[in-house]
Specification:
Chain lengths: 790, 551
């Protein structure tokens, strides 16, 4: 076949010429097909059937095949195809189910040759055999495909797809006997033309109808399919199972797909609804089309490459009643307009960001990410010389590390695990939590717990040692705002800078790579690199986009940063108690202001005046004596919780919320609570603290939260004998009437915790298995497996 | 008596957890008993309870409550709830309060109750469906009970309806119900209007809107025109209609909202067809579904008689059936014979193109003229008519004047290729759900026809489907419309035509007079085909207009 086409090419003479042009048709087109000489195109539709000659500057109408006085439904074409071997032979599929062949060599005005009325429903597609002169295939809405020999009156064979409707049929270009058909239910079938009884292979390619398919002109067994699910998929049919190799996601259902000649990975698609453009995709770049033709004003219904060996001319017909010739070099290239950017989180919280290098360069002047450490990572693209579409000019990749001296979240994990949230009297809980916090060096938190205890419990129970301890570290003085936050330092710091340049086209700079890894280790430097790629596809004109210069890399100031802020030594209860006649609103205001003030003044020094512990004790006694109800403090406590939450310590907020329970809950609105809970649970789960998170869920009073662990609580089990799912009730399998989960040790049904070996799937009561495995290392069931219990 | 603490919370009953239901029931029981006590005490002090106005109000509330309990005792898929609510009613009655009883028997006026599945005797699959439906809506409506003849379809139907009304979508919840009311009111379907008035209020809709469309926001008023055209003459929808809705300054619709609204409108137009086509009775807890009057011979309700539940009536049916039994048996046989003939000789006689085209035109024209003779004017009930304007605008108008319906070629714009893509683009997932529903409805078959088994009914189903589309001017190039004449006899055509175009005029006689030997489940099956075909036809016109607007 290929050989013959090459001959044709040779015959047709020199390369094709032409320009982007269009001509108006009288009616909407449904399909187009090109003559093998690449000089004529046939357009068919409900009320049009014409042949146009493609000339240098314009389309010229050559022949109107729609003759006769009365319009016949036989002429209402759903599809048209021109034989690739015989210039005089055409076939059309009519919406009323008729297949018509046309012979242009007939002397009369009516060129109609044969009429096959075997299909009962609309014929969606006709297809000539690529090398055989007389073989025609049709696929219809009635679910049948028929093969016609044009020398005979009737079909030679009928293939039943056992499905509703056939949307496309295509002969394989490489395999003489094979054809593919696509169906409305999403299936693709492969048939051998000699075996009409059953298909060779069938697989589900799309969700919803598969509207079209196309065999790759060169690669044997590559089939592209397009469906209503807006996807184009490329399948490799040479393997035992059809393998999906590429998948392109478009924005509308795919009506036609055609491989681009001479470009191994390119294909053209058009849509049936909503989207009027024609796209040419590189299947390896499934997100941005390589080229786009935007000439049509209504949906494109037919596309065809003008010549089987020329990749630059595309013809298209549309519902807007125009026929177009598109020149590839006139296509718009969305790639050029795109700003490719990538963002990704690493395993340890690193953030990588890649962007077009010009963008980053422009932005770097503004130092958008001060305070964060930037690391260089080299972006090395493996260049495939066979690949014409290597993409964009250059890009820069930056990696941001969130914090130096990692592992700084260990306090979070420790705290989460060690806090006691329920099950003991409030005073004990507070004491316990204060102790935990203190041991972890979080004095402010420890103090808060102690304060809470003082507020909500009888002071007589407070052990003076404990109180002394916490207060001793606390601070209290006459200053109105004595809080000493040393927040995450936002100011610019200092850092060594290195500069690394890479020249364009320098695709393998091993030294640079080494360099970068060295800097990575030192964790001190900050650089940016630009990776640039080689010129791309000449057709895409990527060359112009590149600039031949070295990019001075911008440098970032980096400053070492404290892993954890020093906890504010806040002493609001003290201050509050010092005031003899406390007035609620005033405190409220103070409290509300303090985090803001201190938060904004990032460089505040810590003020830590020392006060005697006795003052607190006496004041708290006084407080108690004056019988201030704990409710009095609820405003303060609420503000404190908000403060912690705002500081990012949602752990504290939630813990206090749970421990205090009803005492504060009513002061905080439901939504905020829910928000805290969900954030905390999310954090816990990220640290794999499943037990803690479950406990929190359980203790929460918010409905939305407590239902979190009510979802998907079912564990589906299969019967260990017959391997079928167990019904929901009982311990006996319905099917084989045997008890399913037997303990391998005591041979009773296990109704509680069931532990089983993942190796041999035997198991039983937790205690029994544990005991057994203390004495023996083999499976109690006697299967010989060496079970392990850990 | 403070209303707040006596507010009955029905939600708990929808739970799948039996203990939750238990508590909810107990709660309800206490409230009911408290109210009963209160009523009794009022009665004793006043002697004549009808004197006090406030008393009448509280009595009204009580009656509503009791009606709801009655519904639960009959229609809840959970056995415990049924039992307990029956028990509560009984205890109320023992306290001397009059309790309601259901009016009529069963969910449909056309189908005898014994033919319809009883709640409680469903199989596991149906029970799951019922429980889903009950959990979503807090009730098991009569439509569901009739549709459960075809559980496969029902599942898809409920899923779609649930998505349209309760899941993510561009329109706010009360808008959705209001649009449902608007659509149902076009066909004066008081059943659907009542249901959705309750739902509308339940999701926080403004009761003022219910006084008429002119009280609703301008945005919804604008939709009135589309509703009207879509219901009666969908082929007249142009892109100007769409443009008018999308470009109305502050009252304009977004495309996504419009598609949602269009899907809702078409859904409820066709559901109104189903309601009338199957003679769905009012819900037990709604107006007209129950009575507080004790049963007495003189007051015998009309629907009891027409329902085929009464003994006397049953005998009449039997005697009538005996007379025509040979006749209608012949009917089925003849239909099967015709189908066979058509199957065989299809290839032989080849009608010319002009012939085919004219057959479509004839069928289309004739479909305009097919109408039942008893064309008596039905004046819509007042409470329904206030929901829409321009009552005179109907399908009937143009059929009398023989208006020309332009031909819509399905090969140029069909649901599978075009409509689906558009809907799914603007209202994700719904396209898929509706597509599934169309598919199930179109392909549903049990390979039976009346008493015959293993029959390929695809030809008959296709004839029905295409006939409906033909009435809307939608033409399939690959269909020989002569088949319709062969397969569908006149009384059947009358029924189809009435259900699809003027559902409010369907009578039990029409329902009974077509396909006399066929089972009720098969007649319901026909109705499913009718409503889905109608919905698709309306959707096609509306979506085509939207597409035209967009291009």
């Amino acid at each position: 076949m290929e050989k013959m086409s090459r001959v044709t090419t040779a015959l047709s003479g020199s390369a094709l010429t032409g320009r982007t042009m269009h001509c108006h048709l009288d009616a909407p087109a449904n399909a187009i097909s090109v003559c093998r000489d690449a000089a004529q195109v046939v357009v068919a539709g409900r009320s049009i059937f014409k042949i146009y000659a493609i000339e240098e500057e314009q389309f010229v109408e050559k022949l109107n095949l729609r003759v006769g006085r009365k319009p016949s439904l036989n002429l209402s074409c759903a599809d048209v195809v021109w034989h690739q071997m015989d210039e005089n032979l055409l076939a059309t599929a009519a919406t009323n189910g008729v297949v018509v062949t046309w012979n242009l060599g007939r002397p009369s005005r009516n060129k109609q040759d044969q009429l096959f009325t075997e299909h009962k429903r609309t014929v969606n597609k006709v297809c000539f055999h690529p090398t055989e002169a007389h073989v025609l295939l049709s696929g219809s809405q009635d679910g049948f495909m028929k093969c016609f020999d044009l020398r005979r009156k009737d079909s030679v064979s009928t293939f039943s797809g056992q499905s509703e409707s056939v949307r496309d049929v295509q002969f394989s270009i490489r395999d003489y006997f094979t054809f593919a058909s696509t169906f409305e239910n999403g299936n693709v079938q492969l048939w051998d033309i000699r075996r009409p009884d059953r298909c060779e292979r069938m697989f589900t390619a799309h969700n919803g109808p598969v509207f079209c398919c196309d065999w790759h002109p060169e690669d044997r067994g590559w089939l592209a399919t397009g469906g209503r699910d807006k996807m184009v998929k490329v399948w490799d049919m040479t393997t035992h199972r059809a393998k999906e190799m590429h998948c392109v996601q478009t924005i509308a259902s795919v009506a036609r797909v055609k491989w681009r000649p001479e470009c191994r990975h390119h294909l053209a698609t058009c849509s049936m609804m909503v989207d009027h453009n024609i796209y040419v995709w590189d299947v390896r770049r499934p997100f941005v089309p390589a080229a786009m033709f935007e000439e049509h004003r209504d949906v494109t219904t037919g596309i065809a490459w003008r010549h089987p060996h020329d990749p630059s001319f595309l013809l298209s017909g549309s519902k807007d009643s125009t026929l177009c010739q598109h020149l590839f070099r006139d296509a718009s290239q969305p790639v050029e307009r795109a700003n490719p950017e990538g963002l990704c989180y690493g395993l340890f919280g690193d953030l990588a960001f890649a962007a077009k290098e010009s963008l980053v360069a422009a932005e770097s002047g503004r130092k958008p990410y001060t305070g964060d450490r930037r690391h260089p990572i080299f972006f090395k693209r493996k260049l495939d010389p066979a690949e014409p579409f290597s993409g964009l000019a250059s890009s820069a990749l930056s990696v941001f590390e969130t914090e130096s001296g990692g592992g700084s979240m260990s306090w979070f994990v420790d705290t989460a695990e060690r806090y006691a949230l329920a099950g003991r009297p409030l005073a004990e809980l507070c004491d316990h939590n204060a102790k935990v916090a203190r041991e972890l060096g979080r004095n402010q938190v420890a103090q808060t717990w102690t304060m809470l205890r003082i507020i909500y419990c009888s002071p007589g129970l407070v052990s003076s040692a404990n109180l002394n301890h916490s207060v001793g570290k606390g601070s209290s003085c006459g200053l109105p705002l004595m809080n000493s936050f040393n927040l995450k330092d936002m100011g610019p710091g200092l850092g060594s800078e290195t500069r690394l340049d890479r020249s364009k086209g320098d695709t393998r700079s091993d030294t640079a790579l080494l360099d970068s890894s060295a800097t990575l280790i030192t964790n001190e430097d900050n650089e940016e690199t630009e990776g640039s790629d080689v010129p791309a596809d000449y057709l895409l004109g990527d060359v112009e986009g590149e600039e031949d210069e070295l990019y001075p890399l911008d440098t970032e100031h980096v400053h070492p940063e404290e892993p954890e802020y020093v906890l504010p030594q806040e002493a609001f209860p003290l201050r509050h108690e010092i005031v003899d006649t406390p007035s609620g609103p005033e405190h409220l205001q103070d409290k509300a202001d303090s985090p803001h003030v201190s938060g904004n003044e990032a460089d505040t020094a810590s003020l830590a005046p020392v006060d005697s512990s006795s003052s607190l004790l006496s004041v708290s006694h006084a407080l108690y004596d004056s019988r201030l109800p704990p409710d009095f403090f609820s405003v303060l406590v609420r503000d404190m919780l908000h403060f912690y939450a705002e500081q990012g310590d949602v752990q504290m907020a939630v813990s206090v919320l749970i421990v205090l329970g009803e005492r504060v809950r009513k002061d905080i609105d439901e939504q905020t609570q829910e928000h805290w809970y969900t954030s905390y649970i999310d954090l816990l789960q990220r640290f794999c603290l499943w037990n803690v998170s479950n406990e929190v869920v359980k203790l929460s009073t918010s409905r939305a939260v407590s239902c979190l662990n009510q979802a998907s609580t079912t564990l589906h089990v299969n019967c260990s004998h017959c391997k079928r799912p167990m019904s929901s009730r009982g311990w006996v399998c319905d099917r084989c009437h045997r008890c399913a989960s037997m303990c391998a040790v005591c041979h009773h049904v296990v109704k509680g915790l069931f532990v089983w070996c993942q190796g041999c799937s035997h198991g039983g009561h937790l205690q029994h298995i544990m005991k057994w495995l203390e004495g023996s290392s083999h499976c109690p069931a006697g299967c010989g497996h060496l079970c392990e219990y850990s | 008596m403070a209303e707040g603490e006596n507010e009955v919370r029905w939600e708990g009953l929808c739970s799948r957890d039996s203990s939750t239901r238990e508590t909810a029931l107990e709660n309800i029981r206490q409230i009911v008993l408290r109210k009963t006590e209160y009523l009794r005490s009022v009665k004793e002090t006043l002697y004549r309870p009808s004197d006090g106005l406030s008393n009448a109000v509280s009595l009204d509330g009580m009656n509503k409550l009791l009606a709801h309990l009655l519904m639960l005792s009959k229609r809840c898929p959970f056995e415990d709830v049924r039992e307990r609510s029956g028990f509560i009613l009984k205890s109320v009655e023992e306290l001397g309060i009059r309790i309601p009883r259901p009016l009529g028997h069963g969910p449909s006026r056309f189908i005898p109750e014994k033919e319809i599945l009883q709640v409680g005797s469903e199989d596991a699959q149906m029970h799951a469906l019922f429980a889903d439906s009950f959990a979503a809506l807090g009730r098991l409506d009569n439509i569901t009970l009739v549709m459960v003849f075809h559980p496969q379809y029902l599942e898809s139907f409920l899923k779609t309806q649930h998505y349209l009304l309760q899941m993510d979508g561009p329109l706010p919840l009360h808008y959705r119900h209001y649009i449902g009311i608007m659509a149902a009111a076009r066909h004066q379907c008081s059943y659907l209007v009542n249901l959705h008035v309750n739902d509308f209020l339940h999701v926080g809709g403004d009761p003022k809107w219910l006084n008429g469309l002119e009280n609703a926001p301008q945005k919804l008023q604008n939709l009135g025109e589309l509703n009207k055209v879509l219901a009666h003459r969908p082929w007249l929808i142009t892109k100007e209609h769409i443009e008018g809705l999308l470009k109305a300054e502050e009252h304009s619709w977004s495309l996504a909202e419009l598609v949602h609204a269009v899907v809702l409108l078409t859904h409820y137009h066709s559901l109104a067809s189903f309601t009338f086509g199957c003679g769905i009775s009012p819900e037990i807890h709604c107006d007209g579904g129950h009575t507080f009057r004790p049963p007495s011979v003189s007051n015998y309700c009309i629907c009891d008689i027409t329902n085929g539940n009464h003994n006397v009536d049953e005998m009449q049916v039997n005697s009538a059936g005996n007379i025509s039994v040979s006749d209608s048996f012949f009917e089925v046989e003849a239909l099967m014979e015709k189908m066979k003939q058509l199957q065989e000789c299809r290839d032989e006689e080849e009608a010319s193109q002009e012939e085919m085209a004219s057959r479509f035109e004839i069928e289309k024209r004739e479909s305009m003229l097919v109408f039942s003779s008893d064309d008596d004017e039905v004046t819509p009930a007042r409470d329904v008519s206030r929901h829409f304007e321009d009552t005179s605008y109907g399908y009937k108008d143009f059929s009398r004047h023989g208006m020309h319906v332009p031909t819509f070629r399905v090969q140029d714009y069909c649901w599978e290729d075009h409509g689906y893509s558009l809907v799914n683009r603007l209202y994700p997932d719904v396209g898929q759900l509706i597509d599934e529903k169309f598919h199930i409805a179109y392909n549903l078959t049990y390979n039976t026809m009346a008493m015959h088994k293993d029959v390929d009914t695809s030809m008959l189903r296709r004839a029905i489907w295409n006939y409906i589309h033909c009435m809307f001017g939608i033409r399939y190039d690959d269909y020989d419309y002569g088949e319709i004449n062969q397969l569908l006899d006149r009384s059947f055509k009358v029924y189809i035509k009435t259900v699809v175009c003027t559902p409010e005029k369907v009578t039990k006689r029409m329902y009974d007079s077509f396909w006399r030997q066929f089972k009720h489940s098969e007649k319901v099956h026909v109705n499913l085909l009718l409503i889905e075909a109608r919905m698709q036809a309306e959707l096609l016109y509306a979506l085509r207009a939207i597409t035209r607007y967009m291009t």
